[in-house]
Amino acid sequence: MINNIVDDNGHAQAQAQIPDQQQQHHCHFQQKPIPKCLPKRIILVRHGESEGNRDDAMYTVMPDYRIPLTPKGIGQAKEAGSRIFDVVSDNGTSDKWRVYFYVSPYVRTRSTLREIGRAFTRRRVLGVREECRIREQDFGNFQVAERMKVIKETRERFGRFFYRFPEGESAADVYDRVSSFLESLWRDIDMNRLHHDPNDDLNLVIISHGLASRVFLMKWFKWTVEQFEYLNNLGNSEFRVIQLGLGGEYSLAVHHTEEEMLEWGLSPEMISDQKCRAHANRSSWNDKCSWYLDAFFDHLANSDDDDYDEVKSNFSD
């Protein structure tokens, strides 16, 4: 059980102070052994190449949820399974680990799961759950090619996050249901519904879609809508590893490089935040770092000792 150990996003609380010489990225952090019942990693995977990715005309004759993987997509998913195995086993050096899968109900994601699963033995898999809330964004029913081209051009002008497809969803709608899923995920962990042995590293693998994975990251790291708009989609069978850092905070920077994060569309400030999270805990890291506040405020006084008239002058601008 992890009651009183994590917050709503599952961030661990740690207490013991780390010596100054071990502090990195100007983050003040504390450390103690992280409770094993927390997931060591949450891995977000996009499905392999589908027939719809290869040919948009598929959406005009087949419901989105039924579109299968291509032979290339099957190979991509199988390769992803091998790479995920290397990640969760620390390249074969660790034996104390298990995986639990969540999967979108679409044919292409379930097929991706099937191929990824070939990399694992039965004893390594704690379980699997089909989860409708991580399904693809709803673009409407059968899609007329010329109409969809105009609609997607309109979305680019309106903004990818708030634009709602006719008879479908916006990215904001997907954000709402992914947020609900995230809350349920932490209840699963808190109540030990995954039947996880705390002596083993727990790895959650979420096989979903590009947009659902991006809004999951947005929710997890509290990214703004503007930051979301610059994110690039995951490639087919690509994955992102959110890993527990030394102080109990989750970060992309534990597993991924700065170059990778730049390619994904993270700004230098977002990358700096990820590096900070890799070493900080929840009690020392917070959302009030200067770059985050500056995204919302034009000017904040540096201290309460600043000249009163200077502070008051902001109200007259």
Automatic annotation (TrEMBL):
GO molecular function list: catalytic activity
Taxonomic superkingdom: Eukaryota
A Pfam family that the UniProt record links to this protein: His_Phos_1
Location of the region described as Disordered in the Swiss-Prot/TrEMBL record: 1-24
Composition bias type Low complexity, residue spans: 11-24
Protein name: Phosphoglycerate mutase-like protein AT74H
